[in-house]
Amino acid sequence: MTKTAIIQAQQRWEYMFLTRRSELALQDELNAVGQQGWELVAVEYYKDAKGIMGWIAFLKRPCAGSKVSGSGGEGHIQHTSGTEGHHAPSLSPDDVFDIKDSG
């Protein structure tokens, strides 16, 4: 008898970071991008090269299956028609494997 198992590929993520000078500005931005499916992973209070204190927030969301353009960074937010939601990634043929046991 042949056994067949379907294994789906591991979840893919896209990442972004935001830098803001004040807690309130960061909070407002996090609330906005949270509605686009971004999840806060970490936040850090830091001093930049000029000695100015600021906040940096690291975010992630499930990748929708297409390549992400750009390298991330402040202002790297992809806005769409406003209907963007939290979608499960689509599977490509490379994401599904058949395992057959001849035993």
Protein described:
It is a single chain. By secondary structure, the protein is mostly beta strands. It has one helix and five strands; from the N terminus they run E-E-H-E-E-E. It has one helix at 23-34; strands spanning 3-8, 13-20, 39-47, 53-62, 96-101. The strands form two sheets. The chain has a three-stranded antiparallel β-sheet, with helices on one face. Strands 1-5 form a two-stranded antiparallel ribbon. The N and C termini lie close together (7 Å).
Percent in strands? 35-45%
- Main sheet, how many strands, which sense, barrel? 3 strands, antiparallel
Query: What's the average pLDDT?
Result: 74
Number of DSSP helices?
Answer: 1
Keyword list:
single chain; 1 helix; 5 strands; three-stranded antiparallel sheet; 103 residues; elongated; two-stranded antiparallel ribbon; 38% strand
Please describe the topology of this protein:
Blueprint: E1 3-8, E2 13-20, H1 23-34, E3 39-47, E4 53-62, E5 96-101
Antiparallel strand pairs: 1-5, 2-4, 3-4
Summarize the structure.
The protein has one helix spanning 23-34; strands at 3-8, 13-20, 39-47, 53-62, 96-101. By secondary structure, the chain is mainly beta.
